[in-house]
Specification:
Helix content is 33%, strand content 36%. With 180 residues, the protein is α+β, with helices and mostly antiparallel strands. An 8-stranded mixed sheet has the order 1-2-3-4-5-6-8-7, sandwiched between helices. The longest helix has 16 residues.
Length: 180
């Protein structure tokens, strides 16, 4: 599966053969990503990235979500996708990360906009969610630029290496998105 976001960005469902490349990107951004991603201590080699890719493929095959590599000008620079697709509530949850040296290029905003359109047009979702650590100002700015509204705060939502952080629950409805 491959989605062309625009002239610079492509989202691709990764294959096990991409594990080395994914691990190298994660490893070279480990300190930066550790601020907001709780899984870095469990990704210690290419075999861990391969396991992640295989799980993402199973999730995709079951129509429960997917994680795509973000390719900017043909280079892997991060991940973006649906952490969860919930058929019952007709909703999706978007998750993402991008390498530190590719911040401030609008990559994640463009990927998110594409995934929001896809959720509403192709999946017929009623709602799109993003859960962001309360202190993660960069991710919160993405949600706010895209017009998401805050539906609440989830206390102690995630353990970031012994530090529990609250999550802000951002939401966008199909009706609201089509009016923006």
């Amino acid at each position: 599966m491959e989605f062309r976001v625009d002239d610079e960005i492509t989202l691709k469902l990764l294959q096990p053969s991409d594990a080395e490349t994914v691990f190298e990107l994660v490893d070279s951004n480990r300190t930066y990503l550790r601020q907001w991603l709780p899984w870095l201590d469990h990704n210690t080699g290419p075999e861990d990235s391969r396991e992640f890719i295989e799980e993402a493929q199973k999730q995709f095959e079951a129509s429960k979500g997917f994680a795509c590599g973000v390719f900017f000008e043909n280079d892997l620079v991060g991940m973006c996708g649906y952490n969860e697709i919930c058929e019952k509530s007709q909703s999706v949850q978007i998750g993402y990360w991008v390498a530190e040296d590719h911040q401030r290029k609008g990559i994640i905003s463009r990927c998110s906009r594409f995934l929001i359109d896809h959720a509403f047009e192709e999946l017929k979702s009623r709602k799109v969610f993003m859960f962001v650590a309360e202190q993660n100002t960069k991710s919160r700015a993405i949600c706010e630029r895209l017009g998401f509204t805050i539906e609440g705060t989830l206390p102690d939502a995630e353990d970031l290496y012994g530090n529990w952080v609250d999550h802000v629950r951002y939401a966008m409805s199909a009706d609201r998105w089509h009016c923006l």
